[in-house]
């Protein structure tokens, strides 16, 4: 370097003595156009050498003028391509090699893989322009993609990321595609999934025999499968469409009959469907997206964005209609915009014959099963669901459902973190040894971690289904492959009946298995994603439906004073009997009756849940509660929301998870600003020696007040709003007590109940006004989809704990 400076000062001197450096770039740097970018940069700076993908990252050897080398080192991180995520740039001086020019070398599969695979990305603007340009050779090509967009995670079979190790391996490039692939000046230079009409995958449309669905579907004979599929959709058919991470079931969102049929065939109950709109303007009469939501909807990920419905959705002239059956009773609509060329074609390009402008897009599966990715399976498993299949011959290696995100307090709040986010790592504030966390049994997501990074899988599903368990195994193996993590330790929930836990037990292969308490894992996940280090305890408020408690009760309304090492149960909802588990989860009126009884209130015939309970069921339930037959004590906040939803007369039967709570939130949102007096939980110190929390929150006074409100003719919406306020104030009061007694000032809000943004925002506001620091989830979901992150941090930190003895 000294020589370079001296020479640089002499304007007429020959170029400085050349030097050579090896630069290693780590992060998401494969499959995002990094090598072409390096090629362009090196060439521009007059450097020779080469660049290659290795298991360790992109490695460039560059040789030339030392000042140019220094600029290269700065610009390689700062000017990286749009889909790249650069984590580190390291350089070392090496011996000169005197290359003739700058070359891109084939990838090397050496050493431990630490190169991060990019998530799938939505079609970029440049590709979209080609799709719609009749003069372009890829006009209307359903698989058009470039360096800056297209499938990645779902087609990668191994690393390093190269076409041969993707599901595009079976499509040899034609001469023209190969030229673009080899041309450093081209947008498709070394873009692995590129194809064209000549060499790419082919679409096919299959139609079911309407008279006999057991017969194999027949290929349609029309020249344009997309045009045929659009016609079928316009005629009210349900079409299974092969997407990036699996099949969707699709129908016209304006067509009541089609939507209702899809709901019935899918055994969907009233669970809302997501929509795909051709353009944002087509939903602006239905929802009111703000700037953050617009950015999410139109960005490179394009998740399903949950948006509050507009108050008066009367469609203006020319706006597409929406069937009431799409999201009955939901305060939100889940909306996404097209993210593959096929979606754009399906919704119609400018000038196409008119077709549906809003499509219902729901995962191609039966309720509870994983999304279908295999073509034969799609025909077999979706035979009773779909009238036709719009499919193609590019395999999907890994299932990946759509992500579901909303904006809350200006930050993203994940309901499901999957397509477009997996497998981007979540940075950890503490180092962990190589570990695998199995997650929970609902909304399963698993996680591997090493050092200061954790990789969460795509959404896998509910583990009570055999197909989901197989999907779990496949996702686990794939995640180890693409991350190179070789777990030395396993983590799972403490619930003895969880399939995820049993899977971990059966796969220890001599490795330690650490069981992590459910709500502790939720709180640790919130701490980790906010970068809290060791010895930074928090007041963890974990509210959800179900988690296995240390006393074998069903926990779910918990306030734990926690750090990564452990927790103390500071507060809990008072136990009430949960009669008959799943039956009561599906029938919230039973939970209301249990709470009424616990509060010493009669089951008077005028109360909505009493009226909703069949007369023959009532005495049986009374006896069950009295004698504690098949009853488990529960402190579940989710079940309390169910009970109040039923008591207010809003929802007595839950057709899908949390339906009663969602309906209660929707009602509260309709209550306006002035709610009058709120309700108040009783808070008392628990008798010692009970094995429970220090402080118990008793909802009995809340139930008494609601019964009074009902008898005074108070509207259900007001009751719902007052209840939300009561829970928010309860959290504040408990946190103030915890601050007085334990000196803690940071509060983590976690658990599926905090997907209720009305509650979460009100609670956070009260806490902040009281001087607390509030941690809400913004990288992983507050529900069980974020559990694995907490499990891995609790189980696998490398710091010595408990006086120097590491976690087993
Ligand atoms: Zn593109
Ligand atoms: Zn081609």
Structure overview:
With 808 residues, the chain is of the alpha/beta class. 30% of the residues lie in helices and 22% in strands. The protein contains 23 helices and 29 strands. An eleven-stranded mixed beta sheet has the order 7-6-14-8-9-13-10-12-11-15-16, with helices on both faces. Helix 6 (225-234) crosses helix 9, helix 15 (588-598) crosses helix 18 and helix 20 (700-711) runs antiparallel to helix 21 (716-742). It binds zinc ion (2 copies). The site of one zinc ion has 7 residues, from helix 4.
Core attributes:
single chain; 808 residues; alpha/beta; eleven-stranded mixed beta sheet; seven-stranded mixed beta sheet; disordered N terminus; disordered C terminus; binds zinc ion
């Amino acid at each position: 370097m000294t020589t370079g400076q001296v020479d640089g000062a002499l304007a007429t001197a020959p170029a400085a003595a050349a030097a050579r450096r090896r630069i290693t770039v780590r992060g998401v740097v494969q499959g995002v156009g990094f090598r072409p970018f390096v090629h362009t940069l090196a060439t521009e700076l007059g450097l020779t050498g080469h660049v290659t993908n290795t298991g360790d990252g992109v490695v460039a050897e560059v040789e030339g003028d030392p000042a140019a080398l220094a600029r290269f080192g700065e610009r390689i991180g700062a000017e990286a391509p749009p889909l790249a995520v650069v984590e580190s740039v390291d350089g070392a001086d090496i011996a000169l090699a005197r290359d003739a020019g700058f070359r891109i070398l084939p990838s090397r599969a050496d050493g431990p893989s630490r190169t991060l695979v990019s998530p799938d990305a939505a079609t970029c603007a440049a590709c979209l322009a080609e799709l719609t340009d009749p003069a372009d050779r890829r006009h209307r090509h359903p698989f058009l993609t470039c360096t800056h967009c297209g499938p990645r995670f779902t087609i990668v079979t191994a690393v390093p990321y190269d076409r041969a190790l993707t599901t595009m391996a079976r499509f040899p490039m034609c001469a023209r595609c190969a030229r673009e692939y080899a041309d450093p000046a081209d947008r498709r230079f070394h873009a692995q999934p590129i194809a064209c009409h000549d060499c790419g995958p082919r679409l096919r449309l299959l139609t079911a025999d309407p008279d006999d669905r057991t017969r194999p579907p027949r290929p349609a004979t029309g020249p344009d499968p997309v045009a045929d599929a659009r016609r079928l959709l316009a005629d009210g058919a349900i079409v299974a469409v092969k997407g990036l991470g699996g099949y969707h079931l699709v129908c016209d969102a304006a067509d009541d009959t089609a939507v209702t049929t899809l709901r019935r065939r899918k055994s969907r109950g009233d669970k809302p469907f997501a929509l795909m709109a051709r353009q944002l303007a087509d939903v602006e009469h239905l929802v009111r997206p703000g700037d953050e939501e617009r950015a999410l909807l139109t960005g490179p990920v394009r998740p399903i964005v949950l948006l509050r419905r507009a108050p008066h959705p009367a469609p203006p002239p020319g706006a597409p209609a929406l069937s009431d059956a799409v999201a009955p009773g939901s305060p939100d609509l889940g909306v996404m915009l097209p993210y593959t060329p096929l979606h754009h074609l399906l919704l119609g390009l400018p000038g196409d014959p008119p077709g549906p402008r809003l499509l219902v897009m729901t995962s191609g599966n039966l309720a509870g099963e994983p999304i279908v990715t295999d073509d034969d399976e799609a025909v077999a498993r979706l035979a009773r669901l779909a009238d036709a299949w719009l499919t193609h011959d590019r395999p999907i290696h890994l299932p990946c459902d759509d992500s579901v995100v909303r904006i809350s307090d200006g930050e993203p709040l994940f309901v499901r973190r999957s397509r477009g986010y997996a497998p981007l790592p979540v940075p950890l504030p503490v180092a962990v040894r190589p570990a695998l966390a199995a997650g929970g049994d609902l909304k399963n997501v698993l996680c591997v971690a090493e050092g200061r990074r954790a990789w969460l899988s795509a959404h896998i599903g509910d583990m009570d289904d055999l197909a989901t368990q197989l999907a779990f195994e496949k996702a686990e193996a794939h995640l180890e492959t693409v991350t190179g993590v070789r777990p030395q330790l396993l983590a799972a929930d403490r619930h003895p009946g969880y399939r995820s836990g049993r899977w971990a037990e059966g796969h220890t292969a001599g490795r330690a298995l650490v069981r992590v308490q459910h709500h502790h894992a939720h709180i640790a996940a919130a701490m980790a994603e906010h970068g809290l280090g060791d010895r930074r305890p928090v007041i963890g408020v974990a509210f959800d439906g179900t988690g296995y408690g240390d006393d074998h009760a069903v926990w779910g309304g918990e306030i734990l004073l926690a750090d990564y090492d452990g927790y103390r149960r500071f507060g809990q909802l008072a136990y009430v009997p949960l009669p008959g588990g799943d039956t009561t989860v599906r029938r919230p009126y039973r939970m209301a009756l249990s709470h009424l009884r616990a509060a010493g209130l009669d089951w008077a015939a005028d109360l909505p849940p009493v009226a909703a309970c069949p007369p023959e069921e009532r005495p049986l339930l009374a006896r069950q509660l009295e004698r504690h037959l098949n009853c488990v004590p529960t402190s579940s906040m989710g079940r309390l929301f169910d009970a109040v939803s039923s008591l207010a007369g809003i929802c007595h039967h839950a057709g899908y998870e949390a339906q009663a709570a969602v309906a209660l939130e929707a009602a509260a949102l309709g209550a306006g600003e002035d709610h009058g007096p709120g309700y108040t939980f009783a808070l008392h110190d628990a008798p010692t020696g009970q094995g429970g929390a220090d402080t118990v929150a008793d909802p009995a006074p809340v139930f008494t007040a609601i019964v009074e409100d009902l008898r005074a003719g108070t509207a259900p919406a007001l009751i719902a709003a007052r209840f939300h306020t009561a829970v928010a104030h309860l959290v504040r009061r408990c946190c103030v007590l915890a601050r007085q007694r334990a000196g803690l000032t940071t509060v983590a809000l976690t658990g599926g109940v905090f997907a209720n943004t009305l509650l979460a925002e009100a609670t956070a506001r009260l806490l902040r006004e009281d001087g607390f620091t509030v941690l809400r989830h913004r990288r992983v979901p507050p529900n069980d989809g974020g559990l694995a992150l907490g499990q891995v941090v609790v189980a696998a930190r490398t710091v010595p704990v408990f006086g120097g003895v590491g976690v087993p």
